[in-house]
Amino acid sequence: MEKIGKEYNLNVIAHGKAADLMDKENFYDGYMKEVPETQITRKNDGTILEKDITTPGWRYFSSSIYYISTVKKSWIESRKDCRGRGADLVIINNSEEQVFVDVWRRNQGVWIGANDRDSEGTWKWVDGNKVINGFWNPGQPNSNGDEDCAVSGYHPVNGKWDDVSCNYNYIWICEKRLNM
């Protein structure tokens, strides 16, 4: 990050190159430290996002802030927690964001915002958009029984997605989009 006095240029993070982000160790060490309280940026209209990006326990990446839970709950309870924080379960839009989730899940399964609770086999994000491209494990989603919610890292070594029962307990990641 480029430091300018007590301000940081977050565009370095927001517009980082995918190749740089795919190296998990450098990704973690170079980009994903918890946001320091003095770190601020400005929206296009010049207003400061300090309140959002300095919220304790949240991490900044590519125009969103993320809360990573430390306890395990069901998908429904996890989503309820996110909504109570003014966010929702993470929507993974690209490989860089998938790497972000993979780093912060700390080798545990983590709830993400994909589900087919409304219509079996029709996977949607919590914002109602269809899951077009995903990072599913081979043979997933398989809708084996009552498996309507997606977890990233069901198999801890690879971080890919599986459909599982929404009643299982996992940690979760909330995402709050910043309007920059």
From TrEMBL:
InterPro entries in alphabetical order: C-type_lectin-like, C-type_lectin-like/link_sf, C-type_lectin/snaclec_domain, C-type_lectin_CS, CD209-like_CTLD, CTDL_fold
The entry's keywords: Disulfide bond, Lectin
MF annotations from Gene Ontology: carbohydrate binding
Keyword hit for rRNA processing: no
NAD keyword on record: no
Family annotation (PROSITE patterns): C_TYPE_LECTIN_1, C_TYPE_LECTIN_2
C-type lectin domain: residues covered: 61-175
Signal sequence region: none
Name of protein: C-type lectin domain family 4 member M-like isoform X2
